[in-house]
Amino acid sequence: MQGNIIVDAWNKSKISVDKNYDNALQYVMLEGSTNNIYAVSRINLSISTEKIASKICNWEEDEAKDAISNLFLKYGNKIEYILLPNLSLK
Fold first, then answer.
1. Considering its fold, how many domains does the chain have in total?
2. In sequence order, which residues have a C-beta less than 8 Å from that of residue 89 and are 6 or more positions away?
3. DSSP string, 5-51
4. Which of 8, 43, 45, 56 is the most exposed place for a label (fewest CB within 10 A)?
């Protein structure tokens, strides 16, 4: 479902989503646990993508908040989307 939302947003307003105009979506991913293939498999993107970084947050909301802060400090405007395949981290 999240994948469909992302692709729909990309197709409807790519000019506002694709910050660097490279026709690819740069994203970071926050995961609840290591190797959760079921959660990650729910994100099927039929557009060109580039994973900038991934962070395991151990199902902890505070860890997810810290991870996002640190990722924005490190990557800043390169991040076009944040993926949360584990919905409990939202």
1. 1
2. 30, 31, 32, 57, 59, 61, 64
3. HHHHHHHHHHHHH-TT-SSSEEEEEEESSTT-HHHHHT----S-EEE
4. 8
Tell the residue number behind the tokens 């994948």, with chain if given: 3
Question: For residues 36 and 65, is the Cβ–Cβ distance under 8 A?
Answer: no
55 within 8 A of 71, measured Cβ to Cβ? yes
Structure tokens at 6: 């992302």
What range defines the domain where residue 39 resides?
Answer: 2-89
Q: Which residue's entry shows tokens 């026709």? A: 23
Tell me, what CATH number does 27's domain have? 3.40.50.2300
The length of the chain, given as a count of residues: 90
